[in-house]
Amino acid sequence: MRKTVLIALVAILLVTTGLQAQTLPPRLEFRHQGLKIETTPVRNHVEVSPIMTLLGGEAAFSASAGVWALSLGEHLVQVAPDRRLVLVNGKLAEVQDAPISSPGGIAVRLSFLDDFILAPFGFHLEPIVGGYSIVPGVSSGKPITIRPAAADFSATTTLVLSLDRAVEATVEARPGGGVVVLLPRSAPRIESPNRLRSRRVRSVVAAPGRLEIDLSPTIGLISWNVLTGPDRVVMELGTVPPTPTPAPIIARPVERSGPRPIVIDPGHGGDDTGAVGASGLSEKELTLVIARRLAQALRSAGYPVRLTRDGDAGRALTDRAALANRLDARLFVSLHANASTVASVHGAETYYMSLDDRASDEAAQFTADLENRAGGAGLQGGSTLDLILWDMAQSEVLNESARLALRVQARLNALLGLKDRGVKQAPFVVLTGATMPAVLVEVGFLSNSEELEQLASPTHQQGLADAIALGIGDFLVGQ
Amino acid sequence: MKGRLLVILLAGLAIGALLAWLLVTGTTHVALVEDVIPAEPPPTPTPAPEQRITLFFAGGDGLLHPEIRTVPLPEDTAARIRIVFAELLAGPRSSLQPILPYPAELRALFVTPGGRAYLDISGPPEPLEGSATELMMVYGLVNSVLLNTEVVAVQVLFEGTERATLTGHLDLSRPLVLNKDLIGR
Ligand SMILES: [Zn+2]
């Protein structure tokens, strides 16, 4: 039960980080009937008041209800910051992204503006250069091009739908078999559908706002993810139990034979060079060299290993832990080389994840203490059920990650003769969503001339790889 | 049967939420705009009292170290943050090193009623490198703001935009809280 909660919560984290909302430019123009306004988006949200003015409507704030009333003619839309409920002409609707408080009062996502403010008033957004035109009528959906590709493995098929823009996609298993991909407000078009070759995927067909995917008998949806950089929907297909189950939003592990691998992630790669030393040695080269040596050391100790990249390939940050999750990895180790503006800084460091926003309420506690000291009432601790569940699930993995980090750092300290270098916590993107013990190792500073020289030497690279392998071994033996 | 119960339950919840939403009174949900894009602190008629503030700068050990100085400090949270930022930008007076690797400009500042501060600063003129650079810059700023105001979390925006990360390490897509691990002894 606890494990289920854990997986579900981590999956929520994964999905929310995967579903990156559209990034808006610093300035956005809106046109309507020959008039135009320019706005500055607030955290990718658009100010509502100027748009109501542009339309000739009204935005009024009711302080007693804490609600904004947006009116145009007979139509009334009521919204409030941080609330996912909207009243459209008196009817209740639930939205995915709540509006936020903004310098202008209230701001919403573009999709929110289109669906819950403009649509009730009989308008929709039409993209133009530098912004949007607000025009009458119902949106027919923005075009989106989908390039499907499938890879058949012995037990499963990975189907990748590459998208030419970000979209809030959801994937559901159809009751009668097959899969549907919902692409709200989109007019999908499939590029070269005949090139899709798979023994488990029969066809991918586009329809307004959705894709219909036909699968071979007994084949169903195991898991799916929406990933960015580049934008794509990735799904794992395979034999599913005949009983109809709700569509999993959980990246469940693939059927696997043999022991669970250790996933080593050589940081950066491709266009992302990472830090570069004065000698030209780059972080992406160094992490790959050490990753290969580390993989060899672990394999010779009898541990199966997978690398997130085994060459100079780019890979999205969010993809790396996701791969470890899919492989049901035993451990996830991300390798990096550091750089500092302070030239004297040197040495290796091991980090593990901190869940700043939810789990760590130290700052709130700190502030509460301050307030108490000042005679105030203190802040309310957010001890809601979901927070408790979240903490329970996360603390288990975090404790293990801390133990792994300590073991690895101890071996690195011994190698480098570092005295009191401890492990640290920080919210690293690459560790986000990992469902197994996960650490990020900074092997040294390319910005320190002495250490740069060391890092370039194969002997030192081997020493670092061996130290990390020993640390991993210490952790696994103690498990 | 189970499904129907669930529907009834959900409908009940929705109605309850709606009622709560509509019936809420008072000012708890009023979004207080504390500050909007001023380039400089507004002139105050009476000078703010001098107070000790704790600023974090980078040490030779790759960690943050406090530097305490006495400055006129107003009560208002946004005004305090602006002073903390200006002092950080002015740099350390000791042997410590700056945390801001470029002359960043505080473009805008916004504090929610819940105590979350959003600091919109100008972006780096050229790409920055290394997790240490990112950690020192972001947590030097976050820790300094948290220790001198009643803010509970800080999110740093660049050029008015939420950035997933600055050098490919730290997750900047959400507000950050105090990080004690990065503070040296
Ligand atoms: Zn790196």
Keywords summarizing the entry:
A: 479 residues, Copper Amine Oxidase, Chain A, domain 1, Immunoglobulin-like, 5-stranded antiparallel sheet, 31% strand, disordered N terminus, B: 185 residues, alpha+beta, 2 domains, 3-stranded mixed sheet, two-stranded antiparallel ribbon, 3 helices, 29% helix, 19% strand, binds zinc ion
In brief, what are we looking at here?
The complex is a heterodimer of chains A (479) and B (185). With 479 residues, chain A is an alpha+beta fold.
How would you characterize the overall build of this protein?
Chain A has 479 residues and is of the alpha+beta class. Chain A folds into three domains: 2-136, Copper amine oxidase-like, N-terminal domain (Copper Amine Oxidase, Chain A, domain 1, 2-Layer Sandwich), CATH 3.30.457; 144-239, Immunoglobulin-like; 262-477, Zn-dependent exopeptidases (Aminopeptidase, 3-Layer(aba) Sandwich), CATH 3.40.630.40. Chain A has helices spanning 2-18, 49-55, 110-118, 283-300, 317-326, 362-373, 385-416, 449-455, 458-477; strands spanning 28-32, 35-39, 46-47, 58-62, 67-72, 75-79, 85-88, 91-94, 100-102, 105-108, 123-128, 131-136, 142-152, 156-163, 170-173, 179-182, 186-190, 201-207, 210-215, 219-227, 232-239, 262-266, 305-307, 331-338, 349-352, 424-425, 438-445. A six-stranded mixed beta sheet of chain A has the order 23-22-24-27-25-26, sandwiched between helices. Chain A has a five-stranded antiparallel beta sheet with strand order 4-5-6-7-8. In chain A, helix 1 (2-18) crosses helix 7 (385-416) and helix 7 packs across helix 9 (458-477). The longest helix of chain A has 32 residues, at 385-416. Chain A is globular, with a radius of gyration of 26 Å. Mean pLDDT of chain A is 81; it is low at 1-21, 242-255 and 357-390. Chain B is α+β, with helices and mostly antiparallel strands and 185 residues long. Chain B has two domains: 1-39; 50-182, no CATH class. Chain B contains three helices and five strands, in the order αββαββαβ. A three-stranded mixed beta sheet of chain B has the order 3-4-5, with helices on one face. A two-stranded antiparallel sheet of chain B has the order 1-2. In chain B, strand 4 (116-121), helix 3 (131-148) and strand 5 form a beta-alpha-beta unit. In chain B, helix 2 packs across helix 3 (131-148). Chain B is globular and about 45 Å long. The model of chain B is unreliable at 12-38 (pLDDT under 50). At the A-B interface, helix 6, strand 26 and strand 27 of A face helix 1 and helix 3 of B. Zinc ion sits between chains A (267-268, 274, 283, 336) and B (131, 168-169).
